[in-house]
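User: quick one, fold this
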Amino acid sequence: MREILERLINEEIDLQTAENMIKSNKILEVDDIAKFDSKRQNRTGFPEAVFSPSKDYEDLLLIIKKYFESDNPQNLIITKLSKERYEKLVSDLAYLDDFIFDYNKRAQILVIKTSENNSEPVAKIGIITAGTSDINIAEEAKVIVEEGGCEAITSYDIGVAGIHRLFPQIAHMIKEGVEVLIVCAGMEGALPSVVAGLVDIPVIAVPTSVGYGVGEGGRVALDAMLQSCAPGIAVVNIDNGFGAAVFALTIVKSG
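Assistant:
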């Protein structure tokens, strides 16, 4: 928008042209399959993200190609992207050799970057999991936290089944100055309540689809977190590490 206004001031374009350019810069339409908020990072401080599983591969590829053909593209995040699809995308997008393809296999997230971010982190955010099976969701949150300009301090597999493991890790994170804690847990989902009872900072609870029997699919963990008697907990949807991280970034950046 700044570039458009500068061109208007310098009388390189007229008012009507400037208005049309500003409108077209907000939304990038990709045929009939997608509408991109191409300037989301300028407005919200966080890049556009694409949820990949429900999209045909050819549609996903077209969306990415069109995005990077637009004027001054910014970083793009592709979530829930399988390793097989990632490898195919790397091959089909090999011509984008000026961009960095940063893929986290565990989190199944691809960040296509225009450049590396070498700036100092604006805050520290802690990420905890109850068990090893929750790590993929925690890693999703970690990628997003780091992409949002913060440092992620992680501690995995410290759930209530061995509660003695939790206390030194919580103490370490508080000493490091984390401003928000993201806590991922499946099964009965008790860990966020325990953590919230120990700290005086916001806790974001992420129920994971880890469990069996009545706990299968993460619904018991979700209900337990929503019903927690410990104050100061916000709860996101099942397996929503992405949403937890964006909320954590919103908290630290609004302070």
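User: anything notable?
Assistant: The radius of gyration is 21 Å.
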